[in-house]
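step=encode ok
step=design start
structure_in=
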């Protein structure tokens, strides 16, 4: 990625000349100091906190990392993480030192990255971002650039306090044109689809009623998991081997690698997760093995209870928008729909599912589960993020209160 060099000057409104350039491995210590200065040492991402991981990122072709430099000091930074096979990028960790704010420098960095990755080189067709909601500024910034709001994640991170983040995406016409249509949803998910549809041409969804079944969890019939952690290389190698052999299901969660493995005592089923120890945030990446999953509700309940006992406070899962039975079972396990991501995944030529065709893009729904009391005291959502929050809260009341009255 770094064969595409960025090196130009920009002038702030008060006359200071700032250099925009690619970050290098030599910037690692200064970058960490910059994030500590702005966030007070409370930033949760390992690519920022761990110098070894940061240096790997700075030398990787999967990252396009831009910085702002003033008089040989770093005053700003933004990261693009790129999956060229999926033509998908994530922009995150945008930061500008306080004395350089108010000059649209964050916008400049993000727009430059988008111009190169999406419009000039055509390496990606979709760029997405998560935005903090403790203030309106990050939400307004991505909206100004052209991102469309896709959902909201209540209490997704815990820095100094609980943080609710919004999801937003920037889509090329080619990405939207390649979507597999129609999606097939259950009625409870239609309001989420309709909120996204007000900003993006998604067509109509087919709605199929799949009645909920009683969800009675019995610990004596649960999946009995053993936990493997602290061995990320082994877990990643095992995950890659099973993927090559076609033995991993629900294996799409971009930009995450597994570092936590749950294995049933009979060795028939393996659950791959990515776990952030900094704020006890976890995502389910996929599962593999010889055992067929007949009921995702019971399966996800067993995973959830195991991870909750491990101390995880927030759990996330991606589910395709085409199988109403699976969607019902996930909802029945009290995972709540948080966001709708159109055209997220490209079907590869090696995909053996006859329902999909190579080159098609699939829509996904992001489901989440929080193990702690929701805390919205510092949230300042804007625009459609208010609609997403109301939808999420209505679903939370239905799943966690109304059904028990």
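sequence_out=
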């Amino acid at each position: 990625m770094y064969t595409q060099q960025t090196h130009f000057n920009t002038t702030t409104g008060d006359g200071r000349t700032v250099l925009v350039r690619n970050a290098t491995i030599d910037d690692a210590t200064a970058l960490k100091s910059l994030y500590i200065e702005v966030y007070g040492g409370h930033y949760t991402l390992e690519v920022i906190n761990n110098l070894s991981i940061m240096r790997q990122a700075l030398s990787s072709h999967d990252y396009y990392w831009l910085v702002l430099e003033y008089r040989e000091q770093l005053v700003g930074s933004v990261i693009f993480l790129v999956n060229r096979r999926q033509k998908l990028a994530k922009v995150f960790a945008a930061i500008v030192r306080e004395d350089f704010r108010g000059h649209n420098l964050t916008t400049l960095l993000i727009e430059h990255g988008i111009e190169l990755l999406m419009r000039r080189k055509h390496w990606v067709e979709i760029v997405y971002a998560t935005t903090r909601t403790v203030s309106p500024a990050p939400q307004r910034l991505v909206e100004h650039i052209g991102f469309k709001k896709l959902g909201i994640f209540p209490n997704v991170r815990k820095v100094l306090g609980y943080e609710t983040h919004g999801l937003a995406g920037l889509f090329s016409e080619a990405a939207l044109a390649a979507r597999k249509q129609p999606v097939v949803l259950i009625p409870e998910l239609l309001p989420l689809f309709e909120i996204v549809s007000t900003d993006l041409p998604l067509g109509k969804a087919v709605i199929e009623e799949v009645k909920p079944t009683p969800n009675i969890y019995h610990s004596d019939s649960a999946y009995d998991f053993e936990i493997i952690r602290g061995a990320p290389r082994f877990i990643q190698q095992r995950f890659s081997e099973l993927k090559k052999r076609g033995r991993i299901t629900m294996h799409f969660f971009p930009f995450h690698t597994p570092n936590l493995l749950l294995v049933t005592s009979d060795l028939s089923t393996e659950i791959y997760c990515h776990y952030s120890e900094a704020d006890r945030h976890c995502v389910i990446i996929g599962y593999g093995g010889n055992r067929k999953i007949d009921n995702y509700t019971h399966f996800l309940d067993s995973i959830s209870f195991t991870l909750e006992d491990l101390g995880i406070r927030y759990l996330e899962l991606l589910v395709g928008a085409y199988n109403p039975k699976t969607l019902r079972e996930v909802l029945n396990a009290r995972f709540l729909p948080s966001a709708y991501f159109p055209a997220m995944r490209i079907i590869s030529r090696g995909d053996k599912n006859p329902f999909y065709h190579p080159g098609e893009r699939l829509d996904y729904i992001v489901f989440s589960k929080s193990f702690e009391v929701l805390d919205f005291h510092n949230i300042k959502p804007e625009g459609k993020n208010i609609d997403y929050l109301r939808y999420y809260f209505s679903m939370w009341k239905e799943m966690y209160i109304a059904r028990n009255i």
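step=design ok
step=annotate ok -> Residues 166 and 365 are 14 Å apart (CA to CA).
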